Amino acid sequence: MPDTDVETPPGPDIVSLGFESDGILRLSWARGVVIDAPNAQLAVDRVNEICQGRRAPLLIDMATTASVSRAARTVFAQPCDASAIALLGSSPVDRVLANFFLGVISSPVPTKFFTSNADAVRWLTSQGNDGG
């Protein structure tokens, strides 16, 4: 986690992005967002800005995401400063989106879908943080 609590302008389709008290970086998408390549690249860029080259666990709240484009999945397949990624959803539709996402791309870091915030945080914590 950076020495200071960096808050970066998230962009129109990202509701929030920042470190929580447990050291986990949380990204929340806007309700009904269609994640396309520019949105995906903005998210990756913002994660890298906040992490400042230090690897950190990332929890992505995708509970209200409408869809993720093929081009966005390609962007998400590229390495960033996330050390592990937990995808958090709340519905069967979220699970289908996440499973499709996980089945189509080869993530550069451990990535898993959860419907429980507590389980996602526990898993991210168990993955460690290879940053310094």
Report what the structure shows.
By secondary structure, this protein is an alpha/beta fold. The protein has a single domain (14-123), classed as yp_829618.1 like domains (Ribonuclease HI, Chain A, 3-Layer(aba) Sandwich). It contains 4 helices and 7 strands; from the N terminus they run E-E-E-H-E-E-H-E-H-E-H. The protein has a 5-stranded mixed sheet, with helices on both faces. A hairpin with a 5-residue loop joins strand 1 and strand 2. The model is unreliable at 1-9 (pLDDT under 50).
- Here the CATH topology equals Ribonuclease HI, Chain A
Could you tell me how far the N terminus lies from the C terminus, measured between alpha carbons in angstroms? 8 Å
Mean pLDDT across every amino acid position: 82
Please state the second-level CATH architecture.
Answer: 3-Layer(aba) Sandwich
* Proportion of helical residues: 25-40%
Number-wise, the strands total 7
* Cross-sheet strand order for the largest sheet: 1-2-4-6-7
Radius of gyration: 13 Å
Would you list the SSEs in sequence order as H and E? EEEHEEHEHEH
What is the H level of CATH, i.e. the homologous superfamily?
yp_829618.1 like domains
Q: In what range is the share of β-strand residues?
A: 15-25%
Main β sheet profile: 5 strands, mixed
CATH class: Alpha Beta
Unreliable stretches, pLDDT < 50, 5 or more residues?
1-9
Give the number of helices.
4
Domains, number: 1
Q: Indicate the structural class.
A: alpha/beta
